[in-house]
Specification:
heterodimer; A: alpha/beta; six-stranded mixed β-sheet; five-stranded mixed β-sheet; 9 helices; about 30% helix; elongated; B: alpha+beta; nine-stranded mixed β-sheet; four-stranded mixed β-sheet; 15 helices; about 20% strand
Chain lengths: ~210, ~400
């Protein structure tokens, strides 16, 4: 029972997360081929599950994986009941409120009731409550930057890393809400039943992070 | 024909397993001298509000009743049992009681739906600290053994560990509440960031906080912890845990136990030892409990008390194979003219302990039918029937 199962997100965090893993002790044992979703190796203390980035915290919450790598944006949106153990400092970006160039927060508030497009409706709801803004939330699956341009929404709440997509769509950051990066999370029970293996993993990972 | 969001229908196979577990746990609690109580399903919201934590308050099913008062469905039992026993003049202490029933909470996030859960638990009111804690933790272990959970473990912690650390931090009350919230959310990244923001990274106490998820082990953890933090209250807490450990290992339960100084429970009313039982096959705890002397103080009584609750839905998940004897059914088919004899026969057989289903059929004879065998017969004479039953069993 000392093997630990780790949920690894595909998508924007995958490459950096893999690079961290392979630099860890035992990391070189694993062979990552393109199509496999479960990666195991003889003698490896890990079993890796490749999952959708939005799902890795869910795997961990229900105990299908002991550990997981997940973006803070997903944790804020899903509010999973898990342990957040380490900041992996990968996939860094910022969750922002943005709107068309030249629109300020005051402008938005003057409009009275506004619409905000986002892929993070739950997080946005909390953000609006805390900042005292009143707005309708429009949930979109992607291309959120389009919404203000065609009048679907007054502003967006989304992740920004370089700001290039925003600029190309004539948008501007109004407020930086919270910095985002990849996190190492653990299941509440695994942390007890596989305490030593998890502690070894966390220390190994912290070692790699300090390199 | 829609089902209310968050509610669940339970069909015979699972219902039988749930009943079986509820009955065998109730029997166990009775054998330890605990007596049943049945608090009501609803409480006035203002009664609960004094006691329960913020997180649960937001998850209450509440509404206005005909009196115009806000009532809520019970979100757990301990508060109701305490309210029950703190008013009036309940008999002798220590009082040992148990309960079983549904509780109602809106899910903790919009991505979950489950809102009705079943708790089976005990409260021991009036037993002084180590005495009561030892008994109730032993009973928690006994419960998991009795229902047949394999490879379970119980972690024991103490809310004092966290509280003493928190008081010794050079922070304003508001900042301390932030620390408390972050620890409750188990967000150790945000906690680390908070120490950096408040220039406390090198404070000796903040290191202990960050080690919280890993401060676990057998008795030696207590010795190790003594060197971590020179604080008399902290040492008293460790000493208390050590005394409790001795008691439980004298009971022969050491193999199931782990000291977990970083154990976190969600209810604010816990004031002493806390514990959590779990299995490696499920990502959620199977049972949880603790000492809650402060709860009675809020209710105006000075009574030591502790208890725990098992989560029935989670037990069902770890015990997938059905347990208990499913009684063999005998179907008795009879013609309408034999109705009187058939009914009397069925009643007689039920008195003898058989399960008998009666069905009227358009036929001239009688039929006994089980899953294995079908026998036809023409009259219901006593001797004849006994022979038939014998034949049915072979």
């Amino acid at each position: 029972m000392n093997q630990i199962t780790i949920a690894l997100p595909t998508g924007r965090l995958k490459e950096e997360a893999l690079s961290l893993l392979t630099r860890m002790p035992h990391g070189s044992l694993l062979q990552f081929t393109s199509r496999q979703l479960v990666i195991e190796a003889k003698d490896s203390p890990w079993r890796i599950l490749l999952v959708h980035p939005k799902d890795s915290a869910t795997y961990v919450e229900f105990g299908a994986a002991d550990l997981g790598i997940v973006g803070k944006d997903i944790l804020l949106e899903r509010e999973n009941e898990i342990y957040e153990l380490a900041d992996l400092k990968i996939g860094r970006c910022v969750m922002v409120l943005a709107s068309l160039k030249g629109v300020s927060k005051e402008n938005l508030l003057e409009r009275g009731h506004i619409r905000i497009a986002t892929k993070y409706p739950n997080f946005t709801r909390h953000y609006l409550q805390e900042s005292g803004m009143s707005a309708d939330i429009i949930f979109l699956y992607g291309s959120v930057e389009l919404a203000p341009n065609i009048g679907l929404a007054d502003a967006i709440v989304d992740l920004v890393s370089t700001g290039k997509t925003l600029r190309e769509n004539r948008l501007e950051v109004i407020e930086e809400i919270v910095p985002i990066s990849g996190r190492l999370v653990a299941n509440r029970i695994s942390l007890k039943t596989k305490a030593e293996a998890i502690q070894r993993f966390v220390e190994g990972m912290k070692g790699v992070l300090q390199q | 024909m829609e089902l209310v969001l968050g509610m669940k229908d339970i069909y015979p196979k699972e219902a039988r397993l749930r009943r079986h577990m509820t009955e065998s746990l109730s029997r166990l609690f009775e054998q330890w001298g605990y007596e049943p109580v049945e608090p009501p399903t609803m409480e006035y919201a203002h009664v609960l509000e004094k006691i329960i934590g913020e997180e649960i308050k937001e998850r209450l099913y509440q509404f206005v009743n005909r009196e115009g008062k806000v009532v809520c469905l019970r979100p757990e039992f301990t508060t109701s049992v305490a309210r029950m026993l703190s008013r009036g003049n309940p008999t002798l202490f220590p009082l040992r009681v148990y309960y079983a029933g549904r509780i109602f909470r809106y899910p903790s996030s919009p991505f979950h739906t489950e809102s009705e859960l079943t708790q089976i638990g005990v409260e021991n009111i009036g037993s002084p600290s180590v005495q009561g804690d030892g008994e109730v933790i032993a009973l928690a272990i006994s419960s998991l053994k009795r229902v047949g959970v394999e490879e379970f473990r119980v972690d024991i912690g103490h809310v004092g560990i966290f509280r003493h650390l928190l008081t010794s931090l050079p922070l304003q009350e508001e900042a301390k509440q932030t620390v408390k919230r972050l620890v409750k959310q188990r967000d150790f990244v945000a906690l680390q960031n908070f120490w950096e923001a408040t220039n406390l990274t090198h404070h000796p106490v903040t290191h202990i906080f960050l080690r919280f998820p890993f401060l676990r082990g057998k008795r030696e953890v207590l010795e190790e912890a003594e060197t971590l933090f020179p604080h008399p209250e902290w040492h008293r807490t460790l000493h208390y845990l050590s005394e409790l450990w001795t008691k439980l290992s004298d009971f022969g339960y050491e193999e199931y136990l782990t000291i977990n100084l970083g154990l976190i429970r969600d209810f604010d009313y816990y004031s002493g030892v806390i514990w959590e039982g779990f299995s490696p096959h499920l990502g959620y705890p199977l049972l949880a409990g603790g000492r809650y002397d402060e709860l009675f103080q809020i209710l105006g009584k000075d009574l030591p008390a502790c208890g725990f609750a098992l989560f029935l839905e989670r037990l069902v998940q770890v015990l997938k194979q059905p347990q208990g004897n499913i009684p063999e059914k005998i179907h008795l088919f009879y013609p309408s003219k034999g109705r009187r004899e058939a009914f009397q026969l069925a009643e007689k057989l039920r008195e003898q302990g058989y399960t008998v289903v009666i069905e009227e059929k358009e036929q001239s004879d009688f039929t006994f039918s089980t899953s294995k065998k079908t026998i036809r017969f023409f009259s219901v004479e006593t001797e004849k029937i006994e022979e038939l039953l014998k034949e049915l069993r072979t």
